[in-house]
Amino acid sequence: MKYVVITGGSRGIGKAAVELFAARGDRVFFLYEKEHEAAAAVAEDTGAVGICCDVSNGEQVRAAFRQIPDVDILICNAGICRTGLMSMLPEEDWDRLFDVNVKGIYHCVNAAMPAFLKKHHGCVITVSSMWGQVGASCEAAYSATKGAVIALSKALAQELGPSGIRVNCVAPGVILTDMCADVAPEILASMGEETPVGRNGTPMDVANAMAYLADAEFITGHVLSVNGGYVI
Questions:
Q1: Which CATH number fits domain 3-224: 3.40.50.2000, 3.40.120.10, 3.40.50.720, 3.90.180.10?
Q2: pLDDT tens per residue, range 41-85
Q3: Which residues contact 219 (CB under 8 A, 6 or more apart)?
Q4: Distances in Å between the alpha carbon of 188 and those of 154, 180, 194?
Q5: pTM, full prediction
Q6: What is the set of active-site residues?
């Protein structure tokens, strides 16, 4: 049994990861910010422990990790998105995206570091996006944060490898979660048809990739594309 911490675990990809790692027999703790009822349901269904925490707030993250036994696997999944022309994006929205999507990883990795260093072993899995790999029109800020996640993951893999800590990243494509709620059904259908495997992804597709990276002891610094071939 391993101790697993998953951020953004009350819905979408994070919820699927909580379900999968709990089903594997791991002791799972998940962080969430606002979805109290959804978090309570996930906890009841899986036996995982939900902790309310804004990952952009360092003190809240440190307080959350004080409630968690020495972590073995940290999955930095929490993320938010804004769409629209960059010229129309308020500065506070730009800052909020970076605070959650990038600084949240900074806070969580640093909070997990004492446990990793004590064991001389640890696994960090970050969540980027295919738009972090190639960019997307009208998602400049989101793409920028997800590109930063990739660069950060590769840098940390080199920095932390000698301490026995692996860092890998998953880059999902079109995954049918709440983040797609505002996308027209015909656009989602078209994107599925354009994907070589002929469909859009599910949260469990990404969770399975996370589980693979969690077990792959000789892989670090890798970006695993989970997009059905939409971006190759």
A1: 3.40.50.720
A2: 999 999 999 999 999 999 999 999 999 999 999 999 999 999 999
A3: 166, 168, 213
A4: 31, 8, 10
A5: 0.97
A6: 142
